[in-house]
Backbone:
């Protein structure tokens, strides 16, 4: 790989990993709330989580621009109070990737949480575990397959995210030009096919890596899972 | 971020090749490297409207310059035309192949046979110019069923190159700079609005070199670069 | 008083209406299948809420519908051997056994870990996953987990089911010892007349 | 809604529903193979299924163009033998939506299939059910939560699909201009914001509909599921 | 000969080495917990494959390691009451009961549907989901499902566990009838000495 390609890969990995790492707990929290609680507004929350999946990514990017942009309500607040600027920064690319990956992660996790037998949670409670300990020692580990599946889906979605990123974070080399944006940029050039193919193969290899990692993690916990499930 | 860098330039994707060459020329002159962000003119304009940090905007679409002027984001007196373009009818062909004159279809036949691609008239400037021409030539209704609206001028070129389209109404610049595209006829420029690429210094720009780069874009040296890629010069 | 229970509960078409007061340290519950024995234990453990009544064990009120008191399961301090074991499938046998050990000891542990493991004959299983246990092995681990959880009273739902005679005999002895020496209130559900006769003088026959 | 908006909605629904309906059995088959079988090449298949998630949608569209286009190997075959043409047709939009939805559907279904207790399949076999009957009477119904979750994810992804569609099927009003493409078109026009908002709201309402439908289906089978799971 | 079994199998650290030949229609298997009784039944049902040996029931070879014959479970025609019930959670009780009825009847049904339901006392449960059953109710449904599956032999893994005495007595009578009148080979796993003494003359004591 050329140094320029290295830079793109490094940036993409940084953006994607941060996006997935930040989204994992949020997604799990949402999945848990949606799976285990009945409250007014639950349906609205469900719909809201799905939104980035339904809207064309460009629109999501535009909404992010209106909200987190320097003139947007949250963006202005972040910039004035914390000095954090998201637009046109790699952090903005991470935000866009995170938002796009969220619905996929929530669904997979929710599916696994709903499959956890509540009788086991009950058993933990009689053994003296409070709600919190029962959650961390029973629900959370038993929904691991969903966390891993959600992680893989989220990683793949985040590393491939294009529309929201270019709209919200722009296409700035070294700052927000992730793999998909680099591919797009090359695709606009006549004769860019070879560069496109090279970059696409790199993207594929990266996510194969994520896939292998997740399968390995699943297998590591297979001693129990192969039987539990 | 610690390295010194030149101005941030938001530019229409169709200008990618000449601008990248100009960017290296700029560095060769001892300047700090530019930051180039390519996207569609519309995407860039919306980003500028929402407070982008860029110093310069180079648009392929007058509409969006007007939009930003109306929105009070920029001053139209600062707008400079840096290049122009024109339309051609183009097909896929071997490099340097000269078409025997009897094989060249008439314009009417060209736009009413098989699939002809151009930009989407609603979203892509290329397509808007093509529609203007077809309307003025009285060919629009006959051609419309044959048109495949592509999402950018680059995408239209791709469709011709992989021969999913039998031909295209494309920018002369693309036909001139791409080996396997053969322009078989030029479209009279007066049949559509002028195709101009406008550069403008954004009022929010704080970079000391931004003005200089705009001057450089309008220089003879820059014009030669644009011309090398098939663009017209103002 | 060891037990002062009055529980009123509807479950589908089945109504449970049980009341018992007793000074005995161990009471047995018996009755045909489906009469509501397990449901009653669930109410006592705090996993189900009776429609009305009160649950007072060893003078401690766990539930009272009139004063709207309803302690959560983890505050009741019961050692519950479930009819269906409910071992944690993602924890090995050892981790299952010590899960309840973190409970703040109001009472002391019934037996040491080593004694419990020896009594139940599960020493060779500590490193196994629950799925790799036979029916009787899983039963013994479930009993061990409840005994080790530092409980203030025991709920045993057919604890000897699927155990062989000699192992059952050993366990009965242990239960007698817990009843007499440690003075722990025990509710014992069983279908086996001889077990009940041997352990209990107070029998709640549900029907 | 204006007649033009109705037309867009009708087209979007047709494209999405056909895409999801065609993909469901394929996705379930792939999910089953990946969940229950170990064979050489399994990992490759897994990677292949994830591909459309990882690659930027434009690239997927471009690959579709090269494969299913008039000059592509499959496209040429389809056109010559069956007279079916996909490029620049609504059927092509459906293909693009299907390909993009596939990985999400497979993952959700696979998660549910892996959660089906094999002991129940064993029980069915001792009761005289062959592999096929055991599959249709035990594995399939018990993985219903995954089928529904996959269906919702797939529907949402398909109705929001933009990049691959515009690249493979172009943006032809009445033929391939689905909701996301219509939204994009309006977004490219200065002052199109109100039209964008209207169309985005329609997209949201449609997927809310799908969400409600799926929740209702889940609840309908809740008698068992609330307890099974 | 009713039974001609020789099974050699390793399971984790446990080795099963069982051989029995008998003309009796019912043989009992007993032995301490974890000795391999359930594993042996699984081999006979075709759910596990022995490392070596043969399984011949009523003259029909189900498995033979020398000739590499290994019938799949659905071709063996066994009625298996699992130690852990394994009711289908997504089917109501009725659907569970009739699941095996579609089997092509080589032998005739043991008992009519109505008789089976009456014997087991599960008539009022037919419209229930399995999760809403008590322990003993689920056990009876599992027995009913196996009996109704038109089996050519029965595998009963502690069938009377968690049933009350009177229900157990009724079932024992039914098993005796099936053994004597219908002449069906039965393998009966139990820990209960009195049950075994009553039903079987041939006892395989594993250890
Ligand atoms: N979720 C439920 N919905 C409706 N009815 C239920 C539910 N759970 C249990 N039941 C019914 O409540 C009654 C009492 O069940 P319970 O499990 O307490 O019985 P049990 O006395 O423990 O029986 P066994 O000796 O068979 O274990 C039974 O008739 C059972 O069918
Ligand atoms: N998946 C497994 N992996 C390893 N060992 C296993 C596995 N399943 C069962 N075993 C072991 O095999 C042995 C036999 O188990 P099996 O279930 O056949 O016992 P059993 O005689 O039926 O006992 P019980 O009377 O307790 O039901 C036990 O020691 C058990 O721990
Ligand atoms: O580069 Mo453009 O904005 O497709 O004309
Ligand atoms: Mg019970
Ligand atoms: Mg057993």
Residues:
């Amino acid at each position: 790989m050329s140094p320029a390609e290295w830079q793109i890969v490094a940036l993409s990995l940084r953006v994607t990993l941060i996006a997935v790492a930040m989204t994992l707990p949020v997604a799990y929290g949402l999945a848990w709330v949606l799976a285990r609680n009945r409250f007014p507004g639950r349906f609205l929350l469900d719909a809201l989580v799905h939104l980035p999946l339904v809207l064309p990514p460009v629109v999501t990017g535009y909404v992010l621009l209106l909200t987190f942009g320097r003139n947007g309500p949250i963006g202005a607040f972040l910039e004035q109070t914390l000095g954090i600027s998201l637009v046109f920064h790699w952090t903005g690319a991470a935000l866009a990737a995170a938002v796009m990956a969220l619905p996929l992660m929530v669904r997979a996790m929710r599916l696994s949480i709903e499959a956890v037998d509540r009788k086991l949670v009950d058993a933990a409670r009689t053994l003296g575990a409070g709600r919190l300990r029962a959650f961390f020692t029973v629900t959370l580990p038993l929904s691991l397959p969903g966390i891993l599946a959600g992680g893989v889906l989220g990683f793949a979605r985040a590393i491939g995210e294009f529309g929201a990123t270019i709209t919200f974070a722009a296409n700035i080399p070294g700052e927000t030009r992730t793999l998909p944006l680099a591919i797009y940029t090359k695709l606009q050039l006549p004769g860019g096919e070879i560069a496109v193919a090279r970059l696409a193969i790199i993207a594929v290899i990266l996510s194969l890596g994520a896939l292998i990692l997740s399968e390995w993690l699943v297998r590591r916990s297979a001693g129990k899972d192969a039987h539990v499930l | 971020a610690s390295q010194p860098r030149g101005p941030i330039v938001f530019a229409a994707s169709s200008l990618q090749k000449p601008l990248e060459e100009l960017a290296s020329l700029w560095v060769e002159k001892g300047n700090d490297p530019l930051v180039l962000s390519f996207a569609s003119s519309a995407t860039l304009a919306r980003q500028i409207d929402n407070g982008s940090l860029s110093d310069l905007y180079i648009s392929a679409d007058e509409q969006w310059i007007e939009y930003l002027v109306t929105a009070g984001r920029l001053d139209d007196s600062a707008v400079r035309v840096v290049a122009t373009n024109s339309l051609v009818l183009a097909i896929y062909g071997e490099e340097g192949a000269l078409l025997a004159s009897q094989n060249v279809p008439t314009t009417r036949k060209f736009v009413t046979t098989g699939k002809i691609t151009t930009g989407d008239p609603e979203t892509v400037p290329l397509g808007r110019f093509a529609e203007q021409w077809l309307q003025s030539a009285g060919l629009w209704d006959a051609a419309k069923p044959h048109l495949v609206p592509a999402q950018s001028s680059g995408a239209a070129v791709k469709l011709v190159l992989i021969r999913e389209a039998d031909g295209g109404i494309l920018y002369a610049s693309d036909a001139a700079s791409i080996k396997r595209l053969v322009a078989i006829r030029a479209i009279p420029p007066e049949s559509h609005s002028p195709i101009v690429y406008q550069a403008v210094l954004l009022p929010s720009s704080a970079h000391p070199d931004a003005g200089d780069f705009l001057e450089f874009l309008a220089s003879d040296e820059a014009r030669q670069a644009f011309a090398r890629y098939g663009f017209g010069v103002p | 008083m060891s037990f002062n229970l009055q529980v009123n509960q509807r479950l589908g078409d089945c109504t449970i209406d049980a009341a018992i007061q007793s000074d005995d340290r161990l009471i047995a519950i018996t009755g045909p299948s489906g009469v509501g024995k397990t449901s009653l234990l669930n109410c006592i453990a705090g996993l189900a809420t009776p429609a009305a009544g009160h649950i007072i064990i060893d003078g401690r009120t766990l539930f009272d519908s009139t004063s709207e008191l309803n302690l959560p399961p983890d505050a009741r301090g019961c050692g519950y051997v479930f009819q269906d074991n409910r071992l944690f499938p993602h924890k090995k046998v050892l981790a299952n056994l010590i899960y309840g050990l973190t409970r703040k000891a109001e009472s002391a542990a019934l037996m040491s870990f080593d004694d419990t493991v020896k009594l139940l004959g599960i020493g060779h299983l500590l490193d196994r996953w629950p799925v790799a246990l036979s029916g009787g092995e899983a039963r013994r681990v479930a009993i061990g987990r409840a005994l080790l959880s530092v409980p203030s009273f025991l709920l045993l739902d057919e604890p000897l089911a699927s155990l062989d005679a000699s192992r059952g005999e050993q366990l009965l002895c242990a239960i007698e010892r817990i009843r007499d020496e440690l003075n722990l209130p025990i509710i014992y559900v069983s279908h086996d007349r001889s077990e009940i006769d041997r352990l209990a003088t107070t029998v709640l026959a549900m029907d």
In short: Chains C and B do not touch (no CB pair under 8 Å). DSSP finds seven helices and ten strands in chain C. Residues 62 and 75 of chain C are 9 Å apart (CA to CA). The pocket of magnesium ion (ligand 4) is lined by residues C 37-38, 83, 157; E 134-135 (CB under 6 Å).
